[in-house]
Structures are given as structure tokens and as C-alpha cells.
């Protein structure tokens, strides 16, 4: 599927996972999702963020970037990895105590 179709499919899959679309980029090429119980955001876009964007918007904890055609299987695999990373970043880190 084309990048635009893959992004639309990813949006539908995220909504089915319980995410809510909470924002869009000004050019309509980036979509932001969140979970009711989580503070971070997941981004789906056709381009990577710049270092300046990363500094300005630390609430975006992970992005799924689609720049080329993908099969349904490839999209699902990348989305699964993105969801795994999203959930891992929301888990509280356990401090290791040294004696």
C-alpha cells in the first residue's frame, strides 16, 4: 500500500487498540495518539521529527514513520514494534539500589 494508505491503516489500527487521536500536524501529515491512562503520545507520520521538534515536544515518546510503500504484514510488524516501544517508555523505571 502507498504511504498515505499505510498511515490511514495505522490510524484505524491504533483506534482499534483503544488509542484516541489527540492532534494533527499543521500540514496534515502527522497524527498524534494517546491512551486515556497514559501521558505520552504516539506519532504517525510520513517524515521523521527534527532535533528541534524533539526538544519542543517531549510528550511524543515514539513515532511510526512511513516513507515508502508497505505491505499489510510489514505495517502490522512495524506498528507492533512501535506499540511495544510506546508501552515500554511509559513503564516506570526501577531504580537499582547499590550497597
Key traits:
single chain, 99 residues, alpha+beta, four-stranded mixed beta sheet, 39% helix, 21% strand
Provide structural commentary.
The chain is an alpha+beta fold and 99 residues long. Helices cover 39% and strands 21% of the residues. The protein is built from three helices and four strands. It has helices spanning 3-16, 51-56, 72-90, and strands at residues 20-24, 30-34, 41-45, 60-65. It has a four-stranded mixed sheet, covered by helices on one side. It is globular and about 35 Å long.
Summarize the structure.
The chain is of the alpha+beta class and 99 residues long. The chain is built from three helices and four strands, in the order H-E-E-E-H-E-H. The longest helix is centred in the last third of the chain and has 19 residues, at 72-90.
What's the total number of strands? 4
How big a fraction of the residues is strand? 15-25%
CA distance, first residue to last residue: 55 Å
Helix/strand structural class = alpha+beta
Q: Main beta sheet, described?
A: 4 strands, mixed
Averaged pLDDT: 90
Please state the CA-atom Rg, rounded to the nearest Å.
Answer: 15 Å
Which stretches are poorly predicted, pLDDT < 50 over at least 5 residues? none
Q: Total helix count?
A: 3
Tell me the helix content: 25-40%
User: Order of strands across the biggest sheet?
Assistant: 1-2-3-4
Principal-axis shape? globular
Order of helices and strands: HEEEHEH
